[in-house]
Design a protein that fits this description.
This protein folds into two domains: 125 residues, Four Helix Bundle (Hemerythrin (Met), subunit A), CATH 1.20.120; 162 residues, no CATH class. 77% of the residues lie in helices and 0% in strands. It contains eleven helices and no strands. α3 runs antiparallel to α4 and α6 crosses α11. The longest helix is centred in the last third of the chain and has 49 residues. The two termini are 24 Å apart. This is Cytochrome c biogenesis protein CcsA. GO terms for molecular function: heme binding. It is found in: Membrane; Plastid, Chloroplast thylakoid membrane.
Length: 320
């Protein structure tokens, strides 16, 4: 009973922190961008990651197995993966805007597990015989980490498409048009430099400056999308291979064309095509971003959509 109380406390506290972090990052982006608020967001994300880590460890200790046996536990682990990836990327890139993508992803996944799923699905249960294997941690952990990483990379690619499809004539120039304060992220990083340019250049030069700023942002997003997906792809590969070995032990065959296996293969092929176009064809920007954006939806079908069907050899894990 004590474990359950602590779990609920950690789960709801970490969700509140993620909601607060999301509010900070989006508020900083749209309204105010000052250093103390940025630091507060970073600290809150670290605390949320820590609380979810403690939650998973307590769950592991109380259940006697790694907490990836149902939809609730896997969603909490996915939320933890988003926070962990956020901390790594923010430390490596030194950019605070990544939280605009990772914080809502962690919050929504956490909220789905904590607020949407019924209490019965949130309870820890004994593993079915098929899951009582040392491959559980290896296979499912790799798959969930790959899902989180690929989703982050795909969201960066979707952001590229949104910016790319923004027409220049609809791009606001003056802060009065935006009606934003002078200390907002948008003003400090886009509009203020543009207004400075207006003082000494003609309008044509300003539009050239706008295009240059957009090109810089797209270039950075494209670079990080490629790097993140390049990390997630080998994780997905390891997850599929370890799952094949586990399937051979449990069912006597490495591959059975189960719906879960089939969609995992489709996911692998989509991101293999993405990496091929980047590494071999040398594509950049919009074209590979379209492929990665497609991968975003494929990942969700593989993770959530197939499970909710409750069919196939993974039907015991339709709540997984």
């Amino acid at each position: 009973m004590t474990f359950i109380t602590v779990e609920h406390l950690l789960a709801h506290t970490s969700f509140f922190l993620l909601f607060f972090v999301t509010f900070i990052y989006w508020g900083k982006f749209l309204y105010i961008n000052i250093k103390p608020i940025t630091i507060l967001g970073e600290i809150s994300m670290k605390i949320a990651c820590f609380f979810i880590t403690i939650f998973l460890l307590i769950r592991w200790s109380s259940s006697g197995h790694f907490p990836l046996s149902n939809l609730y536990e896997s969603s909490m682990f996915l939320s933890w993966s988003f926070t962990f990836i956020h901390l790594i990327l923010e430390n490596k890139s030194k950019n605070t805007w990544l939280g605009i993508i990772t914080a809502p992803s962690a919050m929504l996944t956490h909220g789905f597990a904590t607020l949407s799923l019924p209490k019965e699905m949130q309870e820890s249960v004994f593993l079915v015989p098929a899951l009582q294997s040392h491959w559980l941690m290896m296979h499912v952990t790799m798959m969930m980490l790959s899902y989180a990483t690929l989703l982050c990379g795909s969201l960066l690619a979707i952001t590229i498409l949104v910016i790319t499809l923004t027409k220049q004539k609809n791009f606001p120039i003056f802060t009065s048009y935006f009606n934003l304060p002078f200390n907002s992220f948008i003003f400090q990083n886009l509009l203020q430099p543009m207004e400075n340019e207006i003082l000494s250049y003609k309008t044509e030069k300003v539009f050239s400056f706008i295009n240059f700023r957009k090109w810089q942002l797209i270039k950075e997003l494209d670079n990080w999308s490629y790097r993140v997906i390049s990390l997630g792809f080998p994780l997905l590969t390891i997850g599929i291979l370890s799952g094949a070995v586990w399937a051979n032990e449990a069912w006597g065959s490495y591959w059975n064309w189960d719906p879960k296996e089939t969609w995992a293969l489709i996911t692998w092929l989509i991101f293999a095509i993405y990496l091929h176009t980047r590494m071999i064809k040398g594509w950049q920007g919009k074209k590979p971003a379209i492929i990665a954006s497609l991968g975003f939806f494929i990942v969700w079908i593989c993770y959530l959509g197939v499970n909710l069907l409750g069919k196939g050899l993974h039907s015991y894990g339709w709540l997984m």
